[in-house]
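hey so u asked for the seq, here:
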Amino acid sequence: MSTEAEIAQGGLPGFLGMTVSDRGAQWLEMSLAIQPQHMRPGIPGLHAGTVVTLADTTCGYACMEALPANARSFITIELKSNLLGTATEGTLVCRAEPEHTGRTTQVWTAVVRHKETDRKIAVFSCTQLVIY
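ran it, structure tokens below
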């Protein structure tokens, strides 16, 4: 399988500037330095798509690391996000943790926080279908 950097290079995570910042045995974190392209047009604050994409990507990278040995990949079949706040500068940090890592599905939750203030920006959950 390709490295995270190779996967992100040509895709949306790399374009938006997302990077893996930390990981453990059952979790993964990604960071995103807030830039003008992450904002809503004409209104101060993050575009919801920026926040959801960070959470979805963080869960996806974590899912890749937790796939069963004989699995090829996964696909997101459901996602939900609650946007609780916003920011206009600084860094977002998202941490994904598994709720269920089964043979056919995985369920992940993530929390997006503003690094400088530790304010919670969003809570997110998704279900992944494991592909063999």
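Residues 8 and 14 are 5 Å apart (CA to CA). The longest strand covers residues 120-131.
lmk if thats what u needed
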